[in-house]
Request: fold
Amino acid sequence: MNALTAPISRRGFVGTAAAAVASTALHAPLSSLAQPASPKIKLGIDNFAVRALKLKGRDIVDYAASLNVDTLFITDLPSLGSLKESDAGELRRYATDKGVEILLGSWSICPTSKTFRKDWGTAEEHLALGLKLSKALGSPVFRVVLGAREDRRTPGGIEARIADTVKVLQSQKALASDLGVKVAVENHAGDMAADELISLIEAGGKEWVGANMDSGNAAWTLENPLDSLEKLAPYALTTSLRDSAIWESEKGCKVQWTAMGDGGVVDLKRYFERYAKLCPHVAVNIETIGGFAIELPYLDPGFWEAWPKKSAADFASFLALARRGKAMAQYDGNDPQKQRDELERSIKYCRETLGLGVKPAKA
Reply:
C-alpha cells in the first residue's frame, strides 16, 4: 500500500488532493495539439440523446441517415420497434441501404441493482435476448449496464453488485460465443469508476466482455474523463460520449453535462488526440444529455463511505477540473428541440473542430 492508496480522513483526503492539484502537470498541452484526430474514426449518435423525439425503428435510422453519420447506437430495445429477430434483420437491411451501421444496447443486467427492471424477465433472459437481437441487427456488440450510483450504498457495496453482474455474464458466455457477439458494460450513472469496471471485465472474461466508455459518467465517479479514457481504452468496444461542465460548490462540486465544446471543462482536443492513438477503431457515438446538474458533496462527512478505495491521485486530477470550471444555468433538458439542437451541434463540432467521422456532412 502506498501513500496514494492508504486510507486517510475525509479532510486529509481532500487536503492531499488539493495539494496535488497545485503541483500536477498531468494534462499539460502537447505540441501536436493543433492536429485533429484521424478522420477515419467513425462518428455516430446514441439515440438516447434525442429520446424525447420518441423515434423507433426506421424513423431513428432515417434521422441518423439525415445527419450522414457512420453509426447509430440504439441503446434501448423498445426503440427497435419490435423485439422479433426477423424484424431486427429487416431493420439491419434498411439501415445498410441508408449507409448506417447499427450498434445495440440495453440497460441493467444486475438483478440486485436498484435500476433493474423485473418486467423484462430475468437478467439472464434479458441478456440472451439482447445478444440474439444484436446478431440479427449485425451489431458485433451488445451494450449493458450494471446500475447507478445508488448501488454503491447497497449491501456489500459496488463490489457485491459487480459479482452479481459477472454471474449473469458468465451464464450467457456460450451463447455469446456461438453468436459471435461481445458484451460492452458501461460505466453508468456513477455506478463504477474505471478501475472497478476493469475488474468486472477481467472477471467476466476480457476476450468477450469489454467497455462502453461514457465520458460524462466518468465525471459522476469523480474522475477526469481523460484519466478514464487512458484506463478503459484497451477494453473499449463502444462509446457514449459528451462534454461536462464541473464547478465547485459549497458541499463539493457540481457536474452538468453539455453539448460537445459548449462550456465544458474537458480538453476535447487532447481527449481525441489520445483516443486516436488508443482506440481508433472504436466508433465515437455522441450522447448529449443536458439541462441539470448533480452535486458531489465530497466535503460532507458521509460521502466517502461509498468511495472507500478512491485514490488521492485520481481525485486530484478531477478536482483540477472543478477548480477551473464555471457554473451553468439549468434548463429543460427534456425539450425535444433542445435535445436535437444539442446533438446536431455536437456532431458538427466533432466533424469541423475534432476531425471525426468517415462521412462528410451533408450539403
